[in-house]
């Protein structure tokens, strides 16, 4: 505890002695190192589970298929931890990070700095077919967000440190600092200024350095190029890009459909059991779906395809190359199902590693097929590596991340041209059918919107609930004109909502529309509010997003509109208040 106090004092001293920009640079170093530590801890935790529990204990049983039950154990532990230690819910996936930026002022829960490390380690360590990168990104982002919160930094700096944590996490997971920066820019940050690059670069470099020092090469996804790029193969890379786009579309659509099916199951116990049975069945026939799948990716890149069906029930049936091709194709297509089942049944993980898995299999299938039909000198390992960038680009809408991640983990840029070709084509195809990535589509389902347009992005961050004005005095629909006049005497507003006893909105009374009646005393006890009210031209539902609200203001021509929740009057939203909020946020982003 004393050590922690000394660190806090040191950071506070730095905060006092530096200006805002200098402290932001210092903060990005700490956040990057912390995110790198989180990535290293998670990798080592999973290695420990795999080495000492899975392989060191369970694989010693005479029954060699005992490993089929392990995902049930891992997902079960994850479900129990989430239910009893994190109150039944943790925010999974990049969409939750985007939601916090758009709707929660970039605040992430404190427990997210460690909850994803614990839960994803059990899920993936025991064989769940998912990746660790998404939990690492969530952990790094939470570290950045909570650091900024602790030292009372503003929204702009808080968002930047959140992204810096994500960059440090990806950099630490792959020892790929450039990919970490580009991931933060393409996936996490919507609008970016040049000044943000330096903190992201520093955070990513810090995370990658820590990974380089602590983790050995076997713990990371790393390849050595076996053949140089041959420009004569360019047409094949173009065709591979087209296939990568189509497979990315398949992956995104199929994953979303399966995960949605699981979300309809109310019982977490049923989800867990159904998911466990599905995974055990899959692993029995397709053992390479077990866990992250990085071992099988390395096996493909090293042209050692026999490792993919080792100890599987179909091993004895794979007798020739065409059957092997069919088997690998089935494995590739089933990866989306296995990942969706893992996450949908209660496990924790992400789609980053599965995307690389599918890409490696696609590249191998494509090049292997070409060799089978008579094309010679096909660089199978190169196609295997390049296709990973294509699928990553399509699934995450992040072509630059895909290009530079593969370039970094292969130790050079010899394949930069085919990487660009395949990634660009795949991205264009997926973008045509799905303008938003899977994470952004999930974000929209939560009621938040992210756009590449800066004005739209700023608007989407406005919390309209906080702008609702409640100082308008409601009038009961049976109130007489005398009561209305008395109410007007004590109010500064010239608009009055008319409601029933349960506060259900019936109409509006505008001061300008009852001036004649107000000066006719004979009507005071004869006319009621219901008779002089007007039905509102439109109302705003409390759950509507900012864009629907602004459209209603434009169409109605009104500057104040009532807000309701299931017909119950809540308050008013003012167009001028929203525009003032927009201008103030615009100034903070300049």
Account of the 3D structure:
This protein has 590 residues and is mostly helical. It has 3 domains: 2-218, Clc chloride channel (Orthogonal Bundle), CATH 1.10.3080; 231-452, Clc chloride channel; 462-589, CBS-domain, CATH 3.10.580. The protein is 62% helix and 5% strand. The chain contains 24 helices and 6 strands. The strands form 2 sheets. It has a 3-stranded mixed beta sheet. Strand 1, helix 20 (481-489) and strand 2 (495-499) form a beta-alpha-beta unit.
* Total E-strand runs: 6
> How large is the count of helical segments?
24
Q: Sketch the topology as an H/E string, one letter per element.
A: HHHHHHHHHHHHHHHHHHHEHEEHHEHEEH
Structural class: mainly alpha
Low-confidence stretches: none
Whole-number mean pLDDT: 85
Write the CATH architecture name of the largest domain.
Orthogonal Bundle
Rg from Cα: 29 Å
Per CATH, the superfamily of the largest domain is Clc chloride channel
Strand content: under 5%
Most strands sheet = 3 strands, mixed
Q: Name the shape in a single word.
A: elongated
